[in-house]
Amino acid sequence: MGRGEAGTKKHISLETWDSKLAGVKVPKEDMNRLIMNFLVTEGYVEAARTFEKESGTPPGVNLDAITDRMEVRRALQGGDVDTAIERVNDLDPEILESQPQLYFHLQQQRLIELIRGGSVESALDFAQECLAPLAEENAEFLEELERTVALLAFEDSKASPVGDLMDVAQRQKTASELNAAILASQAQEREPRLPLLLKMLLWAQAQLDERASYPRVNDLATAALVPPTKGE
Predict the structure, then answer these.
(1) Regarding beta strands 216-217 and 212-213, do their DSSP bridges make them parallel or antiparallel, or are they unpaired?
(2) Residues 90, 95: Cα–Cα separation, whole Å
(3) What single DSSP character describes residue 165?
(4) Distance CA 121, CA 186 (A)
(5) DSSP SS3 for 88
(6) Which one is predicted more confidently, 12 or 65?
(7) Where does the record place the CTLH domain (predicted)?
(8) pLDDT tens sequence across 25-73
(9) d(CA 213, CA 231)
(10) CB–CB of 189/37 below 8 Å?
(11) pLDDT tens column, 124-142
């Protein structure tokens, strides 16, 4: 029988699993640094200040600079692309100058906001004058531009096959891309470590599923251990 087939898995009880987990000691300082990393990267300035006072964990960065970064993100999430671009250029004009894909996505978001506001003529002019030149020599940009302009072909653009571009999630996607670029320009991590650790947990469980039946974490929000089903 091959690995992972019925009857070959090792069974690990909840009691045994709990006992092994209890033997793993994670320094409190490491946990505090993980929390601070999340707060700083995601831009929770006041929470970071409070956590620094309560835990004595230094943020490792100037928290005032985080405030500037969050103003850029909030502007973009609110659909104010012009203000976001203006403020990111105030922070570091090289960010957009050195990243054509990011610059295109910001201009694409500008076009989406014009379409959202019902400015059809302005949207067409902007697409032709500002986005078409960027897409001429880049097939990926051209495809994205065509998808965005296609919104104009539908009376209800949100219900169209490309309606996802009108979702708040599209603003969030662009804001996250810009946020990561600002972090990189400041020699900071582009993503918090905590979500990466959670992804590693899910990957590790998927690998272990082939070899054993064991208490799993199915709900990351509660991190509750689910005992293995008998007979697994």
Answers:
(1) unpaired
(2) 10
(3) G
(4) 39
(5) helix
(6) 12
(7) 65-122
(8) 889 999 999 999 899 888 888 999 999 999 999 998 888 878 888 899 9
(9) 9
(10) yes
(11) 999 999 999 999 989 999 9
